[in-house]
Specification:
Blueprint (H helix, E strand, L loop, with lengths): L1 E2 L1 H9 L4 E3 L6 E5 L3 H11 L8 E3 L3 H5 L9 H8 L4 E6 L15 E5 L4 H10 L2 E2 L14 H8 L5 E2 L11 E6 L2 E6 L6 H7 L29 E5 L8 E5 L9 E5 L6 H17 L4 E5 L6 H14 L2
Parallel strand pairs: 1-8, 4-6, 5-9, 11-14, 12-13, 12-14
Antiparallel strand pairs: 2-3, 3-7, 4-7, 5-6, 9-10
Helix pairs in contact: 1-5, 8-9
The structure holds threonylcarbamoyladenylate and magnesium ion (MG).
Length: 311
């Protein structure tokens, strides 16, 4: 069910869950001060309770109200990349951030989204927690139709069109004197170099099985189809190929396109729609063309594909 901006704001402030567009993927929004709504987000998604949520706010000043001990570099990162697809994990003021939202951790994740509709909504509602609006483990939603497919046509959705970034925000945390990327995302690691003076390393685990980013432990983004990642194609292959319009594949493979092999932004934009298309068309097996440069946004796309292909 499509709702207007004012209806969405009203529903959220009354303690309901509403699907909200962002520039990365759609989110399932709940007000940060509605505990019941936060709880229902976990059950709606089938999300494990130890996987914390991102708090979305409309300004850095607002975010500061929920944190303490801001790490060095915060101001530069915030002014360079917000509003936008960057999430920062910061020490949380545990009295002000619902413990359920941060899965009991002493930290909380924050982001100021770049989509104008999301910002307008946040100004009406105040901070919202928003995980991606998909069933846990499944491909994320990049259109209102995707959300309705997962949660039913009666579920309230604020339609903001298709998400242009198409992959989730890049998440950083400050540990042992440096910022580290704990989830690759729409902003590639290289983009932080100029601001920080170093390229943040990608580090998902703190070692000894202790996750820096709990969500990275789980199987993710996966369609029902079996995905085979490959850079080699031959005529024995049948089924579908998730690949590029400017490449030639064996004739028996149906192309589910990610755009052009020279445009990583387009590939990111189409990624989840392509994975969802496999399920819509009941395709049981798809080869995925991973012959792309090992750099920039391609690394985020490859990370998502590797997760999606996990058995
Ligand atoms: O682009 C995005 O980030 C989207 C849109 C809706 O904003 N949201 C999103 O949320 O991707 P979700 O819930 O699908 O992923 C949030 C990730 C999870 O992997 C979670 O473990 C991590 O953020 N996270 C949240 N709080 C954290 C914390 N305090 N420490 C470490 N990781 C945290
Ligand atoms: Mg997600």
């Amino acid at each position: 069910m499509r709702v207007s901006l004012t209806e969405a704001a009203q529903l959220l402030t009354q303690g309901n869950v509403v699907a909200v567009p962002t520039e990365t993927v759609y989110g399932l929004g709940a007000s940060l001060n509605k505990h019941q709504a936060i709880e229902s987000i976990f059950s709606l998604k089938g999300r494990p309770a130890n996987n914390p949520l991102i708090i979305h706010a409309s300004s850095a000043e607002e975010i500061m109200k929920f944190t303490k001990n801001i790490p060095p570099g915060f101001d530069q990162l915030a002014s360079s990349f917000w509003p936008g697809p960057m999430t920062l994990v910061l020490p949380a003021d545990e009295n002000r951030v619902d413990s359920k939202a941060r899965a009991g951790l002493p930290t909380a994740a924050f982001r100021i989204p770049g989509h104008p509709t999301t910002l307008a909504l946040l100004k009406l509602t105040g901070p919202l927690v928003m995980p991606s609006a998909n069933l846990s483990g499944k491909p994320s939603a990049t259109s209102a139709e995707h959300v309705e497919h997962d949660f039913g046509s009666d579920f309230p959705v604020l339609d903001g069109g298709k998400c242009l970034r198409g992959v989730e925000s890049t998440i950083l945390i400050f540990v042992d004197g440096v910022w580290r990327i704990i989830r690759q995302g729409a902003i590639p690691a290289e983009a932080f170099q100029e601001i920080l003076g170093y390229m943040p390393i990608v580090e998902v685990s703190a070692g000894r099985g202790k996750p820096l980013c709990p969500g990275q432990l789980y199987r993710h983004y996966a369609p029902k189809a079996k995905l085979v990642l490959t850079d080699h194609f031959d005529d024995s292959m049948t089924g579908a190929v998730v690949g590029f319009r400017d490449r030639i594949y064996p004739k028996a493979l149906k192309l589910v396109p990610l755009g052009s092999s020279t445009q990583p932004k387009k590939a990111a934009e189409h990624l989840y729609a392509a994975l969802r298309q496999l399920d819509e068309e009941d395709i049981p097996l798809a080869y995925v063309d991973v012959d792309v440069p090992q750099e920039g946004l391609w690394l985020t796309i490859l990370e998502r594909l590797k997760k999606a292909a996990q058995p």
